[in-house]
Amino acid sequence: MNDPVGNGTGKRLVLLVATIASFIFPFMASTVNIALPSLGKELSLDAVTLGWIATAYLLSSAALLVPFGRIADIYGRKKIFTLGIGIFTLSSLLSGLADSATMLIAWRVLQGIGGAMLAGTVVALLITVFPANERGKVLGIIVAASYIGLSLGPLLGGVLTQHLGWRSIFFLGTVLGSLVIGVVLWKLKGEWTGAKGERFDFAGSVIYVLGLVALVYGFTLLPTMSGVWLIVGGIIGLSVFIWWEMQTRSPVLDMNLFKNSKVFTLSNLAALINYSATYAVTFLISLYLQYLKEFSPGRAGLILVAMPAVQAIFSPLTGRLSDRIEPRLIASAGMVLNTVGIVLFIFVNEETPLKLIIGNLILIGFGYALFVSPNTNAIMSSAPKTAYGVASATLATMRQVGMVLSMGIAMVMFALYVGRVQITPEYYPLFQQSMKTSFIIFAILCFGGIFASLARGKVR
User: Fold this and answer.
1) pTM, whole model, 2 decimals?
2) Of 3, 149, 164, 213, which has the highest C-beta tally within 10 A?
3) CATH 1.20.1250.20 matches 8-200+250-454
């Protein structure tokens, strides 16, 4: 393995690149969420198609994270990272130029492929070059960068959408992506691998991608029978994948990571549940503020800043805390706060005072900060050095699949209550009912996640 970072300057450079990259992707996701009502109006999109503008990126990245994590371990983490940022930047430009929902969704899929290359390598790069006693600190920094991206996304996205139109947010993503490419090509020398010379399991990767796409896509088609059949096919496909991975000599996802470590398994499960229960909160509240409260995109964005801003402030502190205190205790406390916050959102209606909405967003934001950095530290600390890329990609997959499932729940509720129509004033009561039912499901999920988080055992 070529490890050119043996000094403080080199490590700081890797941290800088990882921090910028960790900022861009949530920033883009949250700007798109705030722009959806304007985008839907211009392209005449119904509620379900609006959900697909957000979900297309999540689904393609979720399906390819693990394969790209393995490819990065074999062929070089910096190489895959650089290719990923290139694809992400190009697809941002193409998304801004799209003139139909079909084209926009297609470029969002490509954006997800670039995102998979990045998300599967960012944490692995950091874990490779930083010693064990500094991991909580640097993971806290990149989690904070993610939440700063989430914080600025609604605010800046709202202003841009209001004054320059929704296309401007994709052009901004193009500029930011170009900045990362410049830093990587100009300053970041050398390469890092963890499994150089090993074979890439192409057959297993294809089975995995097809199984996961069928499962998650099927979920978004519920309650139709085609959705049920796709889910069944996806479960069978993923079962075949697990069997295949246990037979092959060079698996794309080493099942021993799960078999040999309860901490690794339950920490990933906790991450999956947490994101499934919380991701669509901002999506729903963004629509609620712009439809029921009749706020402009700029004002709605300013309100939505509350949640990620709290995450950004406290994530470095909780990351550092998890280097000293058992991560499961901090992460589980975060899940409790998230559950309380989601339960309170069940009772939101058009008469709910704005200060209660903001207070609740702050509560969920603090819960998130307590959960994410310690949980990430627990996962990466329980993985062997040769599997950092796959461990990082597995965690990112749990996050992305959780996000897709969260959006899927919201989209199923739209399909059941509202139907495939644009959300206009006569449909507001039905939209409100779909939002309430979504929050009930999210609260049940999050409550169950507390026990998965507590059951993981000790890291040290």
Assistant:
1) 0.77
2) 149
3) yes
